[in-house]
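pasting L-fuculose phosphate aldolase for the record, 190 residues
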Amino acid sequence: MKNDIKALVDVSKYLFERKLVSGKAGNISSRFKNDEIEIIAITPTMISLGNLKEEDVVLVDIDGNSLTKGTPSSEVNLHLNIYKKRKDVNGIVHTHSPFATGFSFSNKKIKRLEGFGKIKNPYLIDVEYKKPGSDDLAISVAKALADEDVLILKKHGVLSTGSNIEEACLLAEFVEDMAKTQFISNMLRL
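structre below
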């Protein structure tokens, strides 16, 4: 369990250093089993991912019951709904990365690159805006992730998943790079 929490802290700092999150925005989580109980390690509310320490990480069970002190991210239900629907997901990253989030505020979609994730659509899937932290957002995201590994949350940010927290992080970083490349390409066409 200690290694899982250290990995979560390391990924938090990496996301902050790469400017995929800023201030106190964004949240990440990791699922693991301890004595046959599913435990979710999640970032707390109102703490910058850049300043996160191991003792700040909040542990909850799969039903959201607190196992440690601290207040989990306001998006805890979003994370829990995904884990309940996707047994293959053990890491979730939610960023507000500038280029991909910029696309989320526009009517433009981010094109998928060939060989990227589960390709069923040539563009990354958008989830319509729902209030952050709301049950409506948690339900719509879990539903949309049935056949996807990453989503663009309209007027909000990016949500990526993986078999572990590092994989989810790399996917979030890749999405930001795709968005940046597409933005630059579009600007050069003007």
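The beta strands are 27-34, 37-42, 58-61, 91-95, 126-127, 150-153, 157-162.
The helical segments are 2-17, 76-85, 98-104, 135-144, 165-188.
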